[in-house]
Amino acid sequence: MTKENQADKQEFSKGLEGVISNTTKIGYVDGQGGRLIYRGYDIRDLAEHASYEETAYLLLYGKLPDLKELADFSGKLVSYRDLPADVLDRIVDLPCPCHPMSLLRTGISLLECMTDTCHTAENLDSKREEGIKLIAQMATLTAAIARLLKHQSPVSPDHHLSHSANFLYMLSGKRAEPLAERVMDVSLILHADHGMNASTFASMVVASTLSDLYSSITSGIATLKGPLHGGANERVIQMLMSLGSVQEAETYVGHAIASKEKIMGFGHRVYKTYDPRAKILQAYARDVTEMTGNRRLFEIAEAVEKRVTEAYSQKGVFPNVDFYSGLIYHSLGIDRGIFTPIFAVGRIAGWVARVIEYLEDNRLFRPRAVYVGPIDLPYLPMEKRNFS
Prior knowledge:
Layout: H1 3-11, E1 27-30, E2 35-38, E3 41-42, H2 43-49, H3 52-61, H4 67-79, H5 85-92, H6 100-113, H7 124-148, H8 163-172, H9 178-190, H10 198-208, H11 213-225, H12 232-242, H13 246-258, H14 276-292, H15 295-312, H16 321-331, H17 339-359
Antiparallel strand pairs: 1-2, 2-3
């Protein structure tokens, strides 16, 4: 092995774990302290006081908006909500029963082809404007897909409602209770950004080639679809619904601990303490399950959390954001297949903000790989090859 190969091996970090790829002012995940920061603001303050529209503006522009800026930004989101009819028609005509995330990815690709310009924006202001349009249309497209999968007609946006309230309205066709609107708003805020996660990184890699923003976002959706990134909350609610009582939950966790089985919704690659997003959603889950008659599921979730944290908290294993988000969505009557698309409805603001920021000082991503194969093999003519 050459000295260069040896140097490569010394620098090798599987999955790029711990490797610093860029600088950012957008968000910070404090894994040891259990804090999540957006542009200097603690996520707990944003979840308590801000709206999703304010949070998206903060991520995109680097500051909280004043009244006029928020009104203008919210007005833009409203103006961009409607989808071209051809997008929905083509999704309906797809021949296979695709995963909702595949339909969402395809829908975003179709939107790029049906814009007035259908070209790569040349400047960052144009890209940001496209991003605002995508933030609005991601919600409309997700709600339409949810209804189409239930053989229901899509619901047109209500331009008098906030982003989250309108999203719930488009899902059900009915105006939601104030608590449901607020918890959806908080959920989208909590999912809006989370450091250099896989889908954010994928979006930035595509953008670094100077491809279009739609391609960047479809790569983020495709990455989020993977069960190691998005989708864990689907498996959490499946687990909780399979448990009939608190006693059964305690027994299940005991067996899982004894056999060292993974319990969905616990542990995080970065957080070594309680995920702050999970702590926020826990309180809302209690209220939402009470409102919707799902209190038993919340009690089961609490029992699972208690047993798992008793066993593993000293190892830094606590509930993550997926543990309570699925319980909330289920209690709001949302199908499991739409849980991960909702993740994208929130995260789209972070994807766009990170892409725009990176392009301000762009450099094509080009990591290396450590070659561990053979070198200097002789080429053999076909008649002399024997691979048995």
